[in-house]
Write a structure and sequence with these properties.
By secondary structure, the protein is α/β, with parallel strands linked by helices. The chain has helices spanning 45-48, 71-78, 92-145, 153-164, 171-178, and strands at residues 6-8, 31-33, 56-58, 84-85, 88-89. β2 (31-33), α1 and β3 form a beta-alpha-beta unit.
Length: 203
């Protein structure tokens, strides 16, 4: 059993904690299914604490779960290795909320949620400020080089992406590459099709 990773014990009429005791020895099992058994005692969760590699657990449809307050939060908080519980993934922010709840109830969870939101807002602000600074520097560099300035944020984004890829097919990016002012490829000055002195060019 040293190479066992997945174990399905669903529909096995397991009703006592003792019936699961041997699971404590299975240190390599990462996916365990004990759904639809007759487990009555919430203490059966203690068995999983010794399964150091347990990442996926299916435990629903057991009577014992009705006796566990906030079943999902409790199990996730108590088993730190879990990544999935009953077909639903456990994201890092969910774990942070559940562990806070387990330690200090709803006030602690709300505090953690507020902290996570503040951190996320700060990250977005930092990204925005960095992009704003980059755009400002690029604008000044273009002005000093006598190059055209992007008319909009979308134009700026396209130019930055094109230049980052080394793609100078975009007329503005190509203008920077050759250090020349931007001129539209389809300007009448450069396209004989728009030579007004030659009517046949338009036929």
């Amino acid at each position: 059993l040293s190479q066992l990773h997945t174990l399905n014990l669903s529909h096995n009429q397991l009703s006592t904690v003792e019936s699961l005791q041997n699971l404590r020895k299975l240190k390599t099992v990462s996916c365990l299914d004990v759904m639809k058994n007759g487990l009555q005692d919430p203490a059966f969760l203690d068995v999983f604490l010794d399964m150091s590699n347990l990442g996926v657990l299916y435990a629903k449809d057991n009577p014992a779960l009705d006796k566990i307050r906030m079943y999902r939060k409790t199990i996730v908080a108590r088993i730190p290795t879990l990544k999935y519980l009953d077909d639903k993934p456990i994201f890092d922010h969910d774990r942070a909320y559940y562990e806070a709840w387990y330690r200090g109830g709803l006030p602690a969870e709300q505090e953690m949620r507020a902290k996570k939101k503040a951190d996320e807002d700060a990250r977005h602000r930092a990204n925005f400020d960095a992009m704003k600074e980059l755009r400002s520097r690029t604008r000044q560099d273009r002005i000093q080089a006598g190059l055209p300035v992007a008319a909009s944020a979308e134009d700026f984004r396209e130019e930055v992406l094109a230049e980052a890829k080394g793609d100078f097919s975009h007329s503005r990016a190509r203008a920077k590459a050759v250090k020349q002012p931007f001129v539209d490829d389809y300007s009448p000055r450069f396209d004989s099709r728009y030579d007004l002195s030659n009517p046949r060019a338009h036929m």
